[in-house]
Amino acid sequence: MDISSSVFLLIGSFLYISGGVGILRFPDFYTRMHAVGVTETLATAMILIGLMLLNPEGLVLIKLIIILIMTLFISPTASHALASSAMQNNLIPKLDKNEVNEKETSSNS
Amino acid sequence: MIMGLYNYWVVVVLMMIGFYIVIAHGNLIKKIVGLSIFQTSVFIFYISMAKVDGGTAPILAEGIKQYSNPLPHVLILTAIVVGIATTALGLALAVRIKEAYGTIEEEEIQEKDNLDC
Amino acid sequence: MKDLLSVIMLLGIYSLLSACFFVAMDAVDVAFTEAAVGAGISTLLMLVAITMTGREENPSRHKPALALIVVTITGSLLIYGTLDMPYFGLAQDPVHLHVAPRYVNDSMQEIGVPNIVTSVLASYRAFDTFGEVVVIFTAGMGVLALLSVVRRPKDIVIDSSKIDSFNKCMHEEHLILRIVAKMLIPFILLFALYVQFHGDYGPGGGFQAGVIFAAAIILYTMLFGMNTARRVINQSATQLFAAIGVLLYGSVGVISLLEGKNFLDYRVLSTDPLAGQHLGILLIELGVGITVTAVMVIIFFNFAGRGNDQQNKENSDS
């Protein structure tokens, strides 16, 4: 019981750290959103499952299940909200490097 | 001695950061942010004083002998809510100042006041 | 840092970290309140404020040397002052010796509520909590006085067909958000009620419940627009509710006075003193929750409504 729950908690923490590294290293807003949105939901789910394995019965388990369901709804919706508002405010995603240079030269000339 | 007193020093450092932000920046919103940091450092001061080694949260349960002190918790609960009330009022004042003077930088507001006199 | 948006986001992260710190210090009620209020409502209000005051900060011209000197002197004086303070966490510190043991030991017999923080807040120190509720009410009235927009009668005639067509085209843009919000808002309200009434047995109580209730209403307002929200939630009813909460609290106290005991002495509310304490705590937590909800909604509506009207005036002027 303890070993499996610690495995889940460790996987969750590693996913959070990798999402954080993704925010720092990715070049563009949309890629950063993708990194955080995907890893954050899975990491929260892993941590909650690890906590559920520590409390196998009782009211705490039901509360953790409800929190898990809520997180699965809320976290992807939040990333969608950010990305769609960026799209509507005309934040252009950075495409391949060659295409960006072509766009710059075509807008200059 | 350091191990016994470090929580107070952390509080003093945070308090001084908040104080510096209030007096060194001209933007009104940043002053309100500094005030909020100052308030949170005071909460940390009280709550760190309430902790007892080996105690748990002050909710009565079977088999627990030592509880943390609940009295500072009550005072800080009041303080948090009063803090946000004053922050809301401060922000409302900042919005009105922006409408009346056109800017929220302290120096420009003082210049406009001196021009009017 | 010139960008105020990043400053506010960092402030939100700072509040959340201090809430985690409070959990580590066994202060679960305080952590709950700080997470809900500091990381939630405070960040939101600051964001709404900078939409109206501008997002960038002008570079300052005066030198910060004098401020640094003042801060260093004050800091060193304070650290010199802490050298006499009692050490961290010892059970025989003076702060744990005088009134607190009486609260911890006698709370179960005198009040019968497992959460000691609630029993101290709502019964032993109920007068302080009364003052706090009045402070929140006053802050709401202050924001109303500063920011409310006087609506002329021709503005109030809202064309409902125009609002419906506006809503339909908005519906396409924010489809996912609206559907998910419609599914989640009932659960948020249910959670707020749970927190309100379980303040006796776990962390919770009136303040946290009021803030969560207001957060659900604010979520609805942000997604569906100010006009729809103004139709759903009547402004004068909200102001009435703010006053009703304070009145409920005060009348519980006055009833105790009329029965011949002290102000806010709950033992007279029922034949059994313990049941009287339970009833008194329930009523005043309800009063606190109602007032906090109404005041938070008033503050947000006035901030957002001011921004809305500023934008409308700019659109009609240009």
Task: Please describe what this structure looks like.
The complex is a heterotrimer of chains A (109), B (117) and C (318). Chain A has four helices and no strands. Chain A is an all-alpha fold. Chain A has one domain. Chain A is elongated, with a radius of gyration of 19 Å. With 117 residues, chain B is mostly helical. Helices cover 75% and strands 0% of the residues of chain B. Chain C folds into two domains: 85 residues, no CATH class; 204 residues, no CATH class. Helix content of chain C is 76%, strand content 0%. In chain C, helix 2 runs parallel beside helix 13 and helix 10 runs parallel beside helix 13. Chain C starts with a helix and ends with a helix. The interface between A and C is small, with 8 and 8 residues.
What characteristics describe this protein?
heterotrimer; B: Helix Hairpins; elongated; C: 318 residues; mainly alpha
What summary fits the major beta sheet of chain A?
A: none
Average predicted local confidence, pLDDT of chain B: 85
| Rg calculated over all Cα atoms of chain A | 19 Å
Question: How much beta of chain A, percentage-wise?
Answer: under 5%
The most extensive contact between chains is:
B-C, 74 and 88 residues
Return the domain count of chain A.
Answer: 1
Largest sheet of chain B: none
This entry's quaternary arrangement is heterotrimer
